[in-house]
Design a protein that fits this description.
Layout lengths: L2 E6 L7 H16 L3 E6 L5 H12 L6 H11 L1 H16 L4 E4 L6 E3 L8 E4 L2 H8 L3 E4 L3 E3 L5 E3 L5 H11 L4 E6 L20 E3 H9 L7 H10 L3 E5 L8 H5 L3 E4 L4 H5 L4 E5 L2 E10 L4 H11 L4 E6 L6 E9 L3 H16 L3 E5 L2 E7 L9 H11 L6 E5 L2 E7 L3 H11 L12
Parallel strand pairs: 1-2, 1-9, 2-6, 3-6, 9-11, 10-12
Antiparallel strand pairs: 4-5, 7-8, 11-12, 13-18, 14-16, 14-17, 15-16, 18-20, 19-20
Helix pairs in contact: 1-4, 6-8, 7-8, 11-12, 13-14
Bound molecules: adenosine-5'-diphosphate (ADP), aspartic acid (ASP) and magnesium ion (MG).
C-alpha cells in the first residue's frame, strides 16, 4: 500500500461527466489498496471567467487591496471542483472529504496572486487517510499568516499537489492532464513534437521556467527540493485501464541522468508569450544603477527575467529587462513615478509584443556551438534577436511575438526533435 497524490487539471475536471471519470479512476487506485490525496484544479475556463468578472469591475486597479479580493474570488473555482469531486467519490461508494487550503492549512506568504507555500500541516490529512478516506485538497490556494486567502499563481495547482506530496512524504505525485506526458515542445504548436519517456529534473525545471506550462515552475522546484517522484500523464485514457499500465505511462521526471540523455544536444523547446520588455533609456552609468532600478521592482514583488545593460555612450546607458505581462503596467508606473526622477534617466519605454523562445538540454554541457546553431537557424528565417540569456543547459532569446511559432518549429527541426526515434528516452 502506498500513499499517492493525484492532481487533475482544469480540462480533466471540465464537466460533471469528466469529474465522474476522475472519481472512477481515483476509486480504482483506492480499491487497489492505496491511500489517495487528490488535488483538483478549477473546472476549465472557470479561473479565467472569474478573473474576467473582476476586470469588468476593476479594470485598472493593481493595488494590494484589489489583489486580496482577486484571490478571494479566484480561489472559489477550486472549492467548487473539490466539493463536486468529493460528492462523485461518495457516489462511487467511497468515503471522501474535501478541504479548502485554509482548512488544512496550507500556509503561504502574503504575496497575493503569486503566493509561496511556507508550510503544510499534515495532521488532518493523515487522520482522514488513516480512517480510510480519500482526501481532496483544493489546488491553487492557501492562507497567509493573517488568515487571508491567497492563490499561488496561474497553474498553481501543480505546486499544491507536489507540496502536499512532499508534506506527506508520498510515494509519488501523479499529474493528470490533457496531454499524455511532457513533449519536446508544446504538441499544440508543433504537431511533430515527441513525448519523452523520461526527462531529467534539471531539464524540466528549465522547460517550466522558460514557459512550458505543462508544469508550474514551483511544482518542479518543490519536487527537486523534497525529492518527490513526479509523473505527468493523461486523464483521458479510459478510467478502467490496467492500473500498472497507467502507473508507468506518461513522462517520469527523473533525478538520474544517464549517457543516453546527454547524447541529445537539445531535449526540448519552451516558449513564453507572457512577458513584456521594459527599457530605461539614458541612465547615468554609475555604480548602483541596476540596484536602484531592480531593487524597487523587487520590493514591489515583481519578478524580473532577462536583463541586459548596453555599453555606455557619453556616460549614459540603456537598461532593459523583462517582466510578466501582468506586471507590465505596474512596473512602468513604478519606474515612471518613483525610479526615473531619482535616477535622472531620460525615459522608460515598454513593449508587450515580445516572446521568449528557449532551447533546453543537459547535452548542452558537453556540446559546443549549440547557441550559435540556434542563432544561425533564426537568422535564416529572418528573425531578429532582441535579447539573449543563457545558463549551463539552456539558451533563450527574446524576439517579436509574431515570429514565435516559426521560431519554435524551425528550431525543433534544426535540433532533430522532429524525428520519430526517441533519442533521449531512458
Ligand atoms: P492542466 O489544466 O491539466 O494543468 P495545462 O493547460 O496547465 O493543463 O498544461 C497542459 C498543457 O501544456 C498541454 O495541453 C500543452 O498544450 C501545454 N504544453 C506546453 N508545453 C508542453 C510540453 N513540452 N509538453 C506537453 N505539454 C505542453
Ligand atoms: N485554476 C488555476 C488556473 O487556472 C490553477 C490551476 O489550474 O492550476 O491557473
Ligand atoms: Mg496547469
Amino acid at each position: 500500500m502506498a500513499l499517492i497524490v493525484h492532481k487533475y487539471g482544469g480540462t480533466s475536471m471540465g464537466s460533471t461527466e469528466r469529474i465522474r471519470n476522475v472519481a472512477r479512476r481515483v476509486a480504482k487506485w483506492h480499491r487497489a489498496g492505496h491511500q489517495l490525496v487528490v488535488v483538483p484544479s478549477a473546472m476549465s475556463g472557470e479561473t479565467n471567467r472569474l478573473l474576467g468578472l473582476a476586470k469588468e469591475l476593476a479594470p485598472a486597479q493593481t493595488d494590494d487591496a484589489c489583489e486580496r479580493e482577486l484571490d478571494m474570488l479566484a480561489a472559489t473555482g477550486e472549492q467548487v471542483s473539490s466539493a463536486l469531486l468529493a460528492m462523485a467519490l461518495q457516489a462511487e461508494g467511497l468515503s471522501a472529504v474535501s478541504y479548502a487550503g485554509w482548512q488544512v492549512p496550507i500556509k503561504t506568504n502574503s504575496a497575493y496572486t503569486k503566493a509561496r507555500i511556507e508550510s503544510i500541516d499534515d495532521q488532518r490529512l493523515r487522520a482522514d487517510l488513516a480512517a480510510g478516506k480519500v482526501v481532496i485538497v483544493t489546488g491553487f490556494q492557501g492562507v497567509d499568516g493573517n488568515g487571508h486567502i491567497t492563490t499561488l499563481g496561474r497553474g498553481g495547482s501543480d505546486t499544491s499537489a507536489v507540496a502536499v506530496a512532499a508534506a506527506l512524504k508520498a510515494s509519488e505525485c501523479l499529474i493528470y492532464t490533457d496531454v499524455d506526458g511532457v513533449y519536446t515542445t508544446d504538441p499544440r504548436v508543433v504537431a511533430q513534437a515527441r513525448r519523452l519517456e523520461r526527462v531529467s529534473f534539471e531539464e524540466m525545471l528549465e522547460m517550466a521556467s522558460m514557459g512550458s506550462k505543462v508544469l508550474q515552475i514551483r511544482s518542479v522546484e518543490f519536487a527537486g527540493k523534497y525529492r518527490v517522484p513526479l509523473r505527468v500523464l493523461s486523464s483521458f485514457t479510459p478510467w478502467d485501464i490496467d492500473l500498472n499500465t497507467e502507473a508507468s505511462s506518461g513522462t517520469l521526471i527523473t533525478f538520474e541522468e544517464n549517457e543516453t540523455m546527454e547524447q541529445a544536444v537539445v531535449s526540448g523547446i519552451a516558449f513564453n508569450r507572457d512577458e513584456a520588455k521594459i527599457s530605461v533609456l539614458g541612465v547615468p552609468d554609475r555604480p548602483g544603477i541596476a540596484y536602484q532600478i531592480l531593487g524597487a521592482v523587487a520590493q514591489a514583488h515583481i519578478e524580473v527575467d532577462v536583463i541586459i545593460q548596453n555599453i555606455s555612450k557619453e556616460g549614459k546607458t540603456d537598461f532593459s529587462f523583462t517582466v510578466h505581462r501582468n506586471d507590465f503596467q505596474k512596473t512602468l508606473h513604478l519606474l515612471k513615478t518613483q525610479v526615473l526622477p531619482a535616477l535622472g534617466a531620460a525615459d522608460v519605454v515598454g513593449d508587450a509584443r515580445i516572446c521568449k523562445v528557449s532551447i533546453v538540454g543537459i547535452g548542452m554541457r558537453s556540446h559546443v556551438g549549440v547557441a550559435s546553431r540556434m542563432f544561425k537557424c533564426l537568422s535564416e528565417e529572418g528573425i531578429n534577436i532582441q535579447m539573449i540569456s543563457t545558463s549551463e543547459i539552456k539558451t533563450s532569446v527574446v524576439i517579436d511575438e509574431k515570429y514565435m511559432e516559426l521560431a519554435v518549429r524551425s528550431l525543433h527541426r534544426e535540433f532533430d526533435l522532429d524525428q520519430t526515434v526517441d533519442t533521449i528516452s531512458g
